[in-house]
């Protein structure tokens, strides 16, 4: 299956190949590989360029860390991050491996300094949640033989990066089909930010379900926002105050759906009698809102557990059978959806 | 202030003192201190007994770890654990210190094996959340010069253990006063498990507020349960189906209060018109329930941040000014409380 691993170096690339290519000593190449600072910047740049050109990857090196993996969150958001942490910890504690946790304050790429700290203090591997490395940072980790896996709902990551996600298009399709089957014809979508691919995948599923049913989507009812409750509340109020208000709203997260429930109440609308609401994620809290949320189950703990197992395998030199796993999303019907008033 | 540090050894206790006391070589005492296994069990036991008797503590040893602290949770419960994690991470990331996370699956004491793993891989310090060490484990960590701090709502921890908590009695008092001032006279309490001291402290605050107002507490309305939504739901249904049902319920957590809200709805009671409900914790979700919860703010992030700063100080050899800090709890009034129906 080497054709699926385009970033692997030809087997013949050694430190000597690089030294020869750049015209420096093997010791100099070794210094660059080990992150030592006693190499002239210009020389370092030429060695790094050659390493990249030759797709050099340190092979068969035993992990020299302390039996730890690093879990890096985009941010500690409400609900989501705890589910991921539970899934990862179940695997690491079973394996007797220490788990270090950090977050990037909402950034999607770690700062340069972060990689320096990581390399002075080698983990067995790194798990990224909703964040990822720049191409140069990826090359750097590969050269050091530190494997990494991404947990992401974004299904467009490179095939070279092992990634565990879930099927967002399918989630969008299932939620929208459920509403259409109940008889709704004016359905609003509040998705996450448009620059996050999972938002667009869900919106595409929303469109596909309409196409199947031969129902036109009113573009006025498709909104993008954050995943927090405030976004659901703000968009919910604007949608529900329209004279041609929707009879159903499909939200981007369970927390966002709680914002929609509040907006409905402020507009004097009962859920589900006057308005159907669907969440996304199936967090524990979604069973306890009033009314309990119909939602799409995103198997966050399983995603995290599988990604951790993949990472521990890579740390032992075992390539995963496939580099991209999407877990199945499912509809969970509770109390917040019903046929629209005119059909009852 | 040596009188406040009863576990400090007399300055003259050295390894030689211990060796002399037990009648073994200095090398043997050193092996026991370093956790080596090549010491006869009987000899080890005698050395450890002497170390304990002399309250031996390794002094002035520089932390030899990798700049990491260990954060140990009782369990990853809903909401609470994430707030603590946020508070700790804010301090460790600022200090450039790695944060390792683990949980004890609901146990309140780490298993014996846990300490062995910790000692082979020294952290700068350990932060325990709602869990703690057995006395022998505490002595062991002290001898190794690894400081630890406890984040706990339980205000009865030993003065020798640095602990950050919050004032639960005050929380119970404030919540109950608020309900009494609104005119409620039949108020129910659903607290946490009775073997958790914070539950009893809040119940004592509940009683004190009644005493202040000259209102008798009906013992039938005082319940103990878990902190989860199901406990709130179960107790809520049982309380609200009584012919002499309470007009207000003070719950043990915001999540538990969500269970009470559901029970009220199932009994056809409106909140706050027919029933007032107060939560505890002031988690982010409490602002988004329907109705938004009146609750007691427990400053979880601040508690975690202060405990972490205390721990990092101890790792640098700085004794905290006081070993027990309780942060203030405050009433947050939202929509779930109102005067009882007969007063409106």
UniProtKB/TrEMBL annotation, chains A, B:
Protein name from the UniProt record? Transcriptional regulator, LacI family
Report the SMART domains cross-referenced here: HTH_LACI
Q: Name one GO molecular function term.
A: DNA-binding transcription factor activity
- In this chain the HTH lacI-type domain maps to 13-58
Keyword vocabulary terms for this entry: DNA-binding, Transcription, Transcription regulation
InterPro entries, alphabetically?
HTH_LacI, LacI/GalR-like_sensor, Lambda_DNA-bd_dom_sf, Peripla_BP_I
- Does the keyword Ribosomal protein feature in the UniProt annotation? no
Pfam families xrefs: LacI, Peripla_BP_3
Database matches in CDD domains: HTH_LacI
Taxonomic classification = Bacteria, Bacillati, Actinomycetota, Actinomycetes, Micromonosporales
Report whether Metal-binding shows up as a keyword of the record: no
């Amino acid at each position: 299956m080497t054709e699926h691993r385009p970033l692997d170096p030809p087997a013949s690339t050694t430190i000597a190949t690089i030294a020869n290519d750049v015209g420096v000593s093997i010791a100099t190449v070794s210094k660059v590989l080990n992150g030592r600072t006693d190499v002239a910047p210009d020389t370092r740049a030429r060695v790094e360029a050659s390493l990249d050109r030759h797709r050099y990857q340190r092979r068969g090196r035993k992990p020299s860390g302390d039996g730890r993996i690093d879990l890096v969150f985009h941010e500690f958001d409400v609900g989501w991050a705890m589910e991921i942490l539970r899934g990862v910890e179940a695997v690491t504690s079973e394996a007797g491996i220490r788990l270090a946790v950090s977050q990037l304050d909402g950034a999607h790429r770690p700062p340069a300094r972060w990689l320096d700290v990581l390399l002075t203090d080698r983990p067995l591997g790194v798990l990224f949640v909703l964040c990822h490395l720049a191409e140069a940072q990826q090359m750097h980790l590969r050269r050091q033989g530190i494997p990494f896996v991404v947990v992401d709902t974004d299904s467009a990551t490179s095939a070279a990066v092992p990634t565990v996600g879930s099927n967002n298009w399918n989630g969008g399709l299932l939620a929208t089909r459920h509403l259409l089957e109940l008889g709704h014809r004016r359905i609003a979508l509040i998705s996450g930010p448009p620059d996050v691919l999972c938002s667009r995948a869900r919106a595409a599923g929303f469109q596909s379900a309409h196409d199947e049913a031969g129902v036109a989507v009113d573009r006025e009812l498709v909104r993008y926002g954050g995943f927090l409750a405030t976004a659901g509340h703000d968009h919910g109020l604007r949608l529900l105050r329209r004279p041609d208000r929707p009879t159903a709203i499909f939200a981007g997260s369970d927390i966002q759906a709680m914002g929609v429930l509040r907006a409905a109440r402020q507009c004097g609308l009962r859920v589900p009698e006057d308005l159907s609401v669907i969440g996304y994620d199936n967090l524990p809290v979604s069973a306890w809102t009033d009314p309990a949320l119909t939602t799409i189950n995103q198997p966050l703990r399983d995603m995290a557990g599988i990604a951790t197992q993949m990472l521990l395998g890579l740390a032992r030199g075992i390539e995963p059978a496939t580099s991209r796993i999407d877990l199945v999303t499912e509809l969970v019907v509770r109390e917040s959806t019903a046929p629209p008033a005119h059909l009852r």
